[in-house]
Amino acid sequence: xxxxxxxxxxxxxxxxxxxxxxxxxxxxxSPSTINRILIWGLFGLGFxxxxxxxxxxxxxxxxxxxxxxxxAAYLLTEAGFDHVMVAIILxxxxxxxxxxxxxxxxxxxxxxxxxxxTVAIAEVFFFVEFNPLSAFxxxxxxxxxxxxxxxxxxxxxxxxxxxxxxxxxxxFWYFVGIxxxxxxxxxxxxxxxSAIRDNPRRAEALGHNIHGYKLTAFVxxxxxxxxxxxxxxxxxxxxxxxxxxxxxxxxxxMQTAIGGAGTLFGPLLGxxxxxxxxxxxxxxLHLGATWKLVLGIVFVxxxxxxxxxxxxxxxxxxxxxxxxxxxxxxGASAGSPxxxxxxxxxxxxxxxxxxxxxxxxxxxxxxSKRYGGIVANSDIDFTVDHGEIxxxxxxxxxxxxxxxxxxxxxxxxxxxxxxxxxxxxxGMDVSAVCQLGLTKSYQINQLFDxxxxxxxxxxxxxxxxxxxxxxxLFKNLHGVPGLDEQVERTAALVNLTARLxxxxxxxxxxxxxxxxxGLALATSPSLLLLDEPLAGMxxxxxxxxxxxxxxxxxxxxxxxxxxxxxxxxELVGKVTVLQEGRVLVEGMPxxxxxxxxxxxxYLGGVHGEMA
Amino acid sequence: xxxxDKDTANISRRTVLHAGAAVLGxxxxxxxxxxxxxxxxxxxxxxxxxxxxxxxxxxxxVPLTGAYALQGADELKGWQLAxxxxxxxxxxxxxxxxxxxKGLLGKKVELxxxxxxxxxNQAVEVEQNYINQNKIILMTGSTSSAVAVALNKFAQRExxxxxxxxxxxxxxxxxxxxxxxxxxNLFGQTSAAAIGPVLLKQFGKNKKAAFxxxxxxxxxxxxxxxxxxxxxxxxxxxxxxxISPLGTQDFSQYLTNIANSGAEFxxxxxxxxxxxxxxxxxxxxxxxxxxxLVIPYxxxxxxxxxxxxxxxxxxxxxxxxxxxxxxxxxxxxxVEAFQAKFGYRPEWGAENSYVSFxxxxxxxxxxxxxxxxxxxxxxxxxxxxxxxxxxVHYRPEDHQCIRPVVIVRGKAKKDMKNDEDFWEVLEVVPGxxxxxxxxAFGCQLGDYL
Amino acid sequence: MINWANxxxxxxxxxxxxxxxxxxxxxxxxIYGTLGVLNLAHGAMFMLGGYAGWLAYSYTGSYLAAVVAGxxxxxxxxxxxxxxxxxxxxxxxxxxxxLVTFGLVIVFVEAVRFFxxxxxxxxxxxxxxxxxxxxxxxxxxxxxxxxxxxxxxxxLVLYFVLYRTRIGMIVRAxxxxxxxxxxxxxxxxxxxxxxxGIGAMAAGFAGVVNAPVVSIAPDVGEAILVQTFVVVVIGxxxxxxxxxxxxxxAGEIISITSMFNPGYSYIMLFVAMTLVLVIRPHGLLGQAGxx
Lengths: 611, 449, 291
What we know:
A: alpha/beta; B: alpha/beta; Rossmann fold; seven-stranded mixed β-sheet; about 40% helix
């Protein structure tokens, strides 16, 4: 589903918010329920950026919801502060600051560790609210008496003291929230967040400081949570201590899952379903205590069968209803357009710094890597000059991939030194090295599978245009200068222009392989490492890819690992042979072909011409 | 990805403002359909809309899941029975609210209830919904003072009456009291003042007591009330006060501290499941029966859950115990009606539910009006009215019912006449002497309108 | 009250609590290590064990029957859960696994409430273990002393299964390298089912043997789950020895802190977890790269 009209989503949202009070009451929603749905929806916007877009499932959002709400409520009740909006915003800021520090701890780990840590953190916050800080938070009683907002506009005073006027207030803020959230997910940061969700390691290898971006998402979620918490207190005139409870986080997670994560509207829809069902089970079906059991069963079934929540199901239904009409003609999707090497426009690397463009670009000295007792590489000395194309071969287990990983700083060497363009990069971060102009295409595709080809290349190109970390949260992705050109140029180079708007998961293997190279290329590296670029390709694809690599090579240094020696030797100037983690021999292809040691390494001592 | 798309221009601040204004403008339209009202009685809360039809609704936010689900279910039964008795003009109801006649002011009463999980936020959510959808004219619910305080404040804000369920904190009719809230049952201060003299009479002066206190306001206030009395009047000494977080499962650390404290009495202020677990484990650690267990604020079903091996000889203060049916005819009627309907003898949560509804029905029918200020003023007359345990009255200054406190002692298993005969009633202490001064806990009731 | 006798008793409390946490956590950790699924319903397994044991006890009056019935029942629940639900989530994102097990917590807890009500139930210890034992330097509930032994034996059995049997070898191989089991040509699904059952059984067994100490109620598993997480994070995900060390550390932190100020015992626990994360992000005995 591609929406090309600007602001269509914003417009539909505004319209829906205006129509809701006329429609929803007829469906059995009371105004206070609708108001609560909006607060959950707003709370969920931040959470969806964290979970749906960045892939970080936190069970600790209650900590920030409670913190923001309590801070605002404390200002408005105990401290005698009387600007409601300022208090709520301050609460959100405090939640954001707290989120920053918590994020520093929690984001040390990902996946289930992250989930478990956030659970624990939420528990601590509840304890702290309940006991040590009870003088400020009212302990188990919470803070009653939170005033409703009033705005003196000079000519009139706006009061939000009835359910429907409160709806207007909350709907306004929900709208502001969704506009901001949409900007964030459409910004370069938003693109990188979804890259982190799909493949954090590759996102990092493409030059992005993923820790910084994860922390950003975490803080954004905390701010949304704190803001929603403040609104809760104002909405019901009471800031409850149970906002801090684990159940609050749990309910948010479940609502988001029901509605559909990664859609921004999922949490709102999920809250609607959740609140509606809990009311329906209790007050229409009179299930008594059993309501929660039934709701639990419904939830489990939804997770099992509705993988992407209600919004996801609606998108699928829409696609189904739209039918084959939107599909490309069958012929076009069967294969790539014919490949014409002559048409390829070369893509020179970006000049970084003022290092001389001659002499060695990369030098490794005494490089060794040990995993426990296993020696993967030992004492490798290796130098590549500017403009050179170097091949690396070696039997399986020779330590080629480990060697590459050390060069790109994915793994730190046990000993030794790596110098790139005269700079010592040993122990640097992989993203920083990518920023310097050294990157790699992987042996096994490392793509962002759920995103389109365009998005994949965009993410790669962003690293080059924006640096490791930049907080351009509100910048339009397509407003980044030179970005679209870079994406399209790269796509043309790897012959994927016709596939730009396809999800990667739908591409055939050969095209994925070209995209893999394209990702590395889009970062405009001055030194490009290619780890078995030809692996798994058909003979025709090999020919095409070799031509592609030749054109890429103009003005660029490359190091290529491959097992297809015919193709490799056609490409490269010099070849380095690794065996058992050491450099066996180095020389021109012709020398290597006939070298006895190499033949022995490959054929186990049986002499003969190598295939 | 629906949002994975391309925008062509930047959104302007003006667009946001316009859209926002449209949202606001649109939202004001519905909802202003409150009926016309009499001159001297402006529409307030759910009045008069709530009593316009043939049926008036009461909303109960009661814990059916979570830690207090057991007590909540019992409370709910008390309310259900009361509503049934109001609607069929049962003798018991008429004894407490004579003008009730198969309904209230010619209208049927219907009870709505939903789960609060003992959480203030969920309780407010439930009641807010009922106010919106059913125009309820009375709210009830709580088995925790946090819920009671939240609903108190909510009642005052919404101008809808609230009668508390189980709520032991001094704050409910103390610093968090409101004009629209009333409490029938005993609370920390009164139970401490009632059980203190009994302890001194039974055991004499200068004893050593260990306290177990749940770490929240209710716990701290009850511990303070009990300890203040015992130290100032009896020269008792608090040798340790073990404060445990709400929801503690394993009390061994606290009990170890108590075992090493040299206490002769174990005063357990924990509530709900915390009380069950801490008492059971005190027994496991051999603290009981060596130390005397005192439960200043009795927990419904405690004896049933922990068994008479633990409650034997335990002193507790409570609102009501079913064996009082022998002394009080109304209590007998209540216990019989309850048992006939629900199959077990009611605990004090159900008793409080029933009586607080009966009192409310009395006030409404005496005032002859559903107009909340009329009902409040009827309460505030402070008339002597019947309860299951004799005459009581509501104090106009803080809306607390002045009612007796029942001191019970756990029976040994061999002395139990049936499987619910856990406690013997030692004393019924009249309420007047137990109450603090109305302003002692800082009660400010607030406005009628 | 900080004296020698009290200190020793508190250490003992910590030991009992820690051993129990170790047992529950090792179940959680071997399931995660082998299957890659974090079972948020692990606390519910603990609770179900207690209820199944209690039910068996009320029919037979035998503690032993309760322990056997509780453990077996939860093992069956684990196996069925794996077959019916978890199996379909191996290929789905980790978040979906968390969501579905989180939903199952509600289902289990509320189903038990539906059938048995909210009233807590007690499983008495076997007659010889009722009462208090005088150890000379302190007195201690006999059953809790016995519990230490019972849990230790259970951990030994688990150790034996993991380190001395073929299944254990496969499980540990799977924890080391999830690809390896596939390449050995072993029917992984059968192994997974069994591991899930064994892991759940560890929690179920703990639930029964703990029932005489902490009477059972529908939400008894929730509090224990959070502590289990902390144990696993401290010890290192997927590490059986880590779970044991983590459990003991957690138990001692809770007990010894409460000697000074009980209100802070849980906060100290989380402080310890944070420290471990800062100093050794993969837990004390965890390996890098497993998450």
